[in-house]
Amino acid sequence: MSYIVGLGELMLRLSSLDSERLLQSAMLNATFGGVEANVCVSAARFGLNARYVTAFPDNALGRKAEELLLGQKVDTSCIVWKGKRLGLYFLDMGYDHRPSSVTYDREYSAISEISHADFDWDKIFYDAEYFHITGVTPGISESARELTIYAVKEAKKRNVKVSCDINYRKKLWKYGKNIWDVMPEIVEQSDILFANEYDAVKILGIKSDLDVDGVINDEEYTDLMERTIKKYNLSSVITTKREVKSSSYNIFSSKAIMNGKLYKSKKYDINNIVDRVGSGDAFVGGILSGLYLFDNPQDILEFATASSCIKHTIYGDWNITSKEEVISLMNSKGSGDVSR
């Protein structure tokens, strides 16, 4: 089976306990997370080959991060051991009507200072079918932007399909570039795009009079995304839909334009959310895995949506579930009954 390859930054995640505010107590939960790594972990757990590419400092944190990736059966053979520090992020866990909040500490991290010349691109893309990248990595630093664009072009040279998630992070992009100046060049090299209406209009420059901060109907969505597909020569555009009742209660679904047709998933009422962080990456990992597991686009979308639904119930960035568990939810009415 061919590899799914992801490039990005894996960070040490320090989060508040239960419903406490960040630093309310003297203790924090320590885990690791980062969008592209989260996707690779999901793919590996679903039985696919997944290779994660990054730069780690050769210290206790870097070695622990690799150890945990290996524990999830992710290929770490292309990680570059260079740099002085691992990026950090602090998560103030939301509760009820108090939203979660992230504080980044990524400046001068290993991936933010690495060069494309430090990587073996033939080895990275050996036996690869999909290369996943997001708008997070080019938002870290100028060198990370250059690395991302170089990597995408290297993938296309080798006929590796590119999966791109816009994943706009307002708290990044502090080095002089804006996301709308950078992402179009990356999306031009992509095949599968994870983007919503806002991304299409505000970041990718698709002209529209729609209120992309409001609710649009299926016909408007289809027209907008078909024009996005045409402009950037994409195979599909996929997005999640989330109705936020509170930090603890979301109604979650997804939709996609695949093979020139609109597909919509069933909706999940997700109450008592444990951890929303990483749920979008669980969805992306579900789509990329679903492309291997199913022939029907509807099944691919339902598998990814069920995968994301389960992630909301799991603490940490990684979707610690199985293909069988996701398929069971996908084919059920979501009752949450005991499996015996």
Secondary structure elements and their pairing?
Elements (H helix, E strand, L loop, with lengths): L2 E5 L3 E5 L13 E5 L1 H11 L3 E5 L1 E2 L3 H12 L8 E2 L6 E5 L8 E5 L4 H4 L7 H4 L3 E7 L7 H16 L3 E5 L13 H9 L4 E3 L2 H7 L14 H15 L3 E11 L2 E10 L2 E4 L3 E4 L7 H15 L3 H15 L11 H8 L10
Parallel strand pairs: 1-4, 1-9, 2-7, 5-6, 9-10, 10-11, 11-12
Antiparallel strand pairs: 2-3, 7-8, 12-13, 13-14, 13-15
Helix pairs in contact: 1-9, 9-10, 10-11
Would you mind describing this structure in some detail?
Keywords: Kinase, Transferase. Pfam families: PfkB. GO terms for molecular function: kinase activity. This is Sugar kinase. By secondary structure, the protein is of the alpha/beta class. The chain has a domain at 3-237: UDP-N-acetylmuramoyl-L-alanine:D-glutamate ligase, CATH 3.40.1190.20. The chain contains 11 helices and 15 strands. Strands 1, 4, 9, 10, 11, 12, 13, 14 and 15 form a 9-stranded mixed sheet that branches. Strand 13 (249-258) and strand 14 (261-264) form a beta hairpin. The longest helix is centred in the middle third of the chain and has 16 residues, at 142-157. The chain is globular. The relative contact order is 0.13.
